[in-house]
Amino acid sequence: MKNYTLKVQEVRKENNDTVTICFKQPGLKKIKYLAGQYLTLQFRINGRRYIRPYSFSSTPLLDTTLNVTVKRVPGGIVSNYINDNIKVDDIIEVQEPLGDFVLDLNSSANSIVFWGVGSGITPLFSMIKDLLINKPLVNIHLVYGNKSTSSVIFKHQLQELTKKYSERFRIYNFYSEEEFFEDNSYNFCGRIDLNFIENLVNHIHQPTQHFICGPIGLKSIIKEALQKIEGNLDNVFSEDFEIIKNPEDFNDIENHEILLNYQGIDNKIFVKKGTSILEQALEANLELSYSCQTGNCSTCKATVMSGSIKMIGLEKPRTDLADNEVLLCCSYPLTNDVCIKI
């Protein structure tokens, strides 16, 4: 895993609770990334290290800076710190770009639908700009849900793009908390619903791909509708910002004390039921490497030396892991003889 030190070139306020941090590219070796990927930022706040992944809102070969957009989360230590404290010329440590929520520029799809809610627009915005430049024959639809018109991220930039590429880029806005808003063919009161999804998809008479970035409920309803209409989800891709935990998966999980060998030192860690090994190790002030916290990257990969461990919440099969390898962000001990080496 490569680490970089970047300087903040600009801090751009997108709305009342969202900022875009624009980093200057390194002078010698430029950081390469794909639209849709994320950059992992590292901070030390009140003596503790925090690591958080944020999707690029910039687009390769178009934007000269590396941009990530961060929405304030109520009670979120890092998102609030970024919104309140980051300023021009600050120096921030970052990890190399990661993520497989990216475009297939070799795809034969003539139409792409992006589905997003709130800050889920961030990777979609990067991908939309990429497509508008590099795939001039592809029609693009963005279905974007927000609480109100004032909470829309990239509002003016998106409006400019629809004007410039009006023949092939359309936005359908949904506002869940607007009381007085005139509905029309592109603006709707309420939330994205099954009826709208079916109507839009049936109206597109072209091979289509779908990219979803938003809360679990949004993904579920869209995938359910697409499964019904198209018969499969082969052309549906989603970004995961959280692990889906089924309470039944924890029926055989109990409190356990484990041994964690980190940098050659044995550490006894008490892992509470329902808490991942990564979470508990960080609480014990072990500065382990991690990034996505959803089981999609391999930054927190570790080797099980003994005992039994259960991984919960993996959205995608991880056939790249050996039989004795686990991802600590979604790992829970089943026995008291667990020993892990990092």
Automatic annotation (TrEMBL):
Superkingdom assignment: Bacteria
Keywords: 2Fe-2S, FAD, Flavoprotein, Iron, Iron-sulfur, Metal-binding, Oxidoreductase
Pfam families: FAD_binding_6, Fer2, NAD_binding_1
Signal peptide residues on this chain, from the entry's feature table: none
Domain 2Fe-2S ferredoxin-type: 256-342
Segments traversing the membrane: none
Listed PROSITE patterns: 2FE2S_FER_1, 2FE2S_FER_2, FAD_FR
Molecular function per GO: 2 iron, 2 sulfur cluster binding; flavin adenine dinucleotide binding; metal ion binding; oxidoreductase activity
Xref: CDD domains: fer2, PA_degradation_oxidoreductase_like
Domain FAD-binding FR-type: 1-104
Names of the cofactor(s): FAD
PANTHER family in UniProt: 1,2-PHENYLACETYL-COA EPOXIDASE, SUBUNIT E, NADH OXIDOREDUCTASE HCR
Protein name per Swiss-Prot or TrEMBL: Oxidoreductase
Provenance organism: Flavobacterium hercynium
